[in-house]
């Protein structure tokens, strides 16, 4: 019985490979949108403790992404693709501001600190890299690895006012900087017609982050962000046009 199971498994595997080999991935362009969920330090909302401040936590929130993607296949299942998308990940909440205020009160040894915030994380991301696609009838499974540019449109602004201090107010400014990022993902396309299809995919993005300037900081006490690492997972759906 085991012998027949083994023969059947080999036969099924060879049949599947043969079927996949008969299909060539189609060039496509698509439009996608979906949730963008921060992960790692970017998602953490903890300013740290005295003499152990978290200078890389981002306090980012689940937001969204919207973009354009596409690929050209120079081999039956290997192509070169690209993606341009806008992403947004919120800013500091009232609860975040209260946590940060308490941390600066502790760090500077004052009676009270007031933290006010504006703005949010917004970025434009331009990525290119290889696509590995495996078509089977109406389905095409895609895997991709890409690298490129993270262009920050804005990051949250934080203003801190310290009670009874000579230099009583300092700021963490919004960053317009750029940085390298990389992305890896997988998904599939389902053909509705010969040209039109639906796209479902998930991608993990990571960057060492953009530089952040601070204004009127007399010392390094408390949380001090000079570079903000960013990482998130995009879960998107969309439509694709193939040729």
Termini Cα gap:
47 Å
**Lateral strand order in the biggest sheet:** 1-4-5-7-8-11-12-14
Overall mean confidence score, pLDDT: 90
Work out the strand percent: over 45%
Number of helices: 2
Q: Quick one: how many beta strands?
A: 14
SSE pattern: HEEEEEHEEEEEEEEE
How large, in whole angstroms, is the Cα Rg?
A: 24 Å
Specify the structural class.
mainly beta
* Biggest sheet details: 8 strands, antiparallel, barrel
- Which geometry do the CA atoms define? elongated
Approximate helicity band = 10-25%
Poorly predicted tracts of residues: 10-20
Which structural traits does this protein have?
eight-stranded antiparallel β-barrel, 243 residues, elongated, single chain, 14% helix, 2 helices, mainly beta, 54% strand
Give a verbal description of the structure.
The chain is mainly beta and 243 residues long. The protein contains two helices and 14 strands; from the N terminus they run αβββββαβββββββββ. The protein has helices at 2-21, 94-108, and strands spanning 28-38, 48-49, 52-53, 63-73, 78-88, 113-118, 122-136, 139-154, 157-162, 169-172, 178-191, 196-211, 214-215, 227-242. The chain has an eight-stranded antiparallel β-barrel.
In brief, what are we looking at here?
The protein has 243 residues and is mainly beta. The chain is built from 2 helices and 14 strands; from the N terminus they run H-E-E-E-E-E-H-E-E-E-E-E-E-E-E-E.
